[in-house]
Design brief:
By secondary structure, the protein is α/β, with parallel strands linked by helices. It is 41% helix and 17% strand. The chain has a single domain, classed as Divalent-metal-dependent TIM barrel enzymes (TIM Barrel), CATH 3.20.20. It is built from ten helices and eight strands. α3 links the parallel β3 and β4. α2 crosses α3, α3 packs parallel to α4 and α4 crosses α5.
């Protein structure tokens, strides 16, 4: 391994500043992320068909900041039950990403957030998702796009709850451009701790939401950040770290995430203090510099 460290990239989810992505609010979030000093903004492309990719590509270029894209499948395109509808939805997102210039698609790309059956995933549901993700990965690879499948807590999905489950899906798909998307908020619910899951899935973990237990300012809840930083240092993590706090409630995901009230801090505090917290944690554990 080279002695030169690849620079750790710090991003922020757009919901740090806004509750819904409209053309005007989206441009504002892009500019705010750039002004706050983030390397990139994560854009929630929850409605790909109406997303103004050309406009936002121009704003990103003017602001001098990159973008990743995340989404959750709609209920009528839950991949384990309706794979063709899911692939059509995701194909539209990939079309818009080409115009936008984004090269990472992450989030709930294999299932609909909030769709619950009252039972664990069946073997058939899992296999349908694996097959569809393999098709998606091939399409994305032809466009130069990397994918990351997010593990979310049991109250939001029954398909992929732990990092281990996500790793198993990623390995089963077997595509080099499909990685694992972790989230410390969901880990705080599902995992027995933070170190072991990160270390055990380090071979596929490439995108990590840094999110507090209450979805507000990082470092003020019950997430064990010392364990997280120590684990990331142990595996020499070189993926991306994304601040995910919610300044307002998005109507598309409110019911699925059960977010009924905004955090105590305003967006500028979530962004400023959140980025400072992440940079200091990474520096203290030798992940930067």
């Amino acid at each position: 391994m080279s002695s030169e460290r690849d620079p750790l990239r710090f991003g922020a989810h757009a919901f740090v500043w806004i509750g819904d992505w409209t053309p005007e609010e989206g441009d504002g979030a892009i500019r705010a992320a750039a002004a706050a000093g983030f390397d990139f903004i994560e854009i929630p492309m929850l409605r790909p068909a109406t997303f103004d990719a050309q406009r936002h590509a121009k704003t990103l270029k003017e602001a001098g900041i990159d973008a990743t894209v995340s989404l959750g499948l709609p209920a009528d395109a839950h991949m384990p039950h309706r794979p063709q509808e899911a692939l059509a939805f995701l194909g539209t997102a990939l079309d818009k990403m080409e115009v936008l210039g984004a090269r990472t698609l992450c989030g709930c790309i294999g299932y609909a957030l909030g769709t619950l059956t009252g039972a664990p995933p069946t073997d058939d549901e899992t296999q349908v998702m694996i097959d569809a993700l393999r098709t998606l990965a091939s399409d994305a690879d032809a466009r130069g796009v990397s994918l990351a499948l997010e593990a979310c807590n049991r109250y939001e999905t029954y398909m992929v709850n732990t990092l281990e489950q996500g790793r198993d899906i990623v390995r089963a798909v077997g595509a080099d451009n499909l990685k694992l998307h972790g989230d410390t908020y969901h880990m705080n619910i599902e995992e027995r701790g933070f170190r072991e899951p990160i270390v055990a899935t380090a071979d596929v973990l490439d995108y990590l939401h840094m999110s507090e237990s209450h979805r507000g300012l990082v470092g003020t809840g019950t997430v064990n950040w010392d364990q997280i930083w120590a684990a990331l240092a142990e595996v020499d993590y070189r993926g991306t770290l994304v601040l995910e706090s919610f300044a307002a409630i998005n109507p598309d995901i409110a019911a699925a995430t059960c977010l009924w009230r905004p955090p105590s801090e305003p967006p500028e505090v979530l962004a400023r203090d959140g980025l400072a917290f992440l940079r200091e944690g990474a520096r203290r554990h030798g992940l930067t510099g």
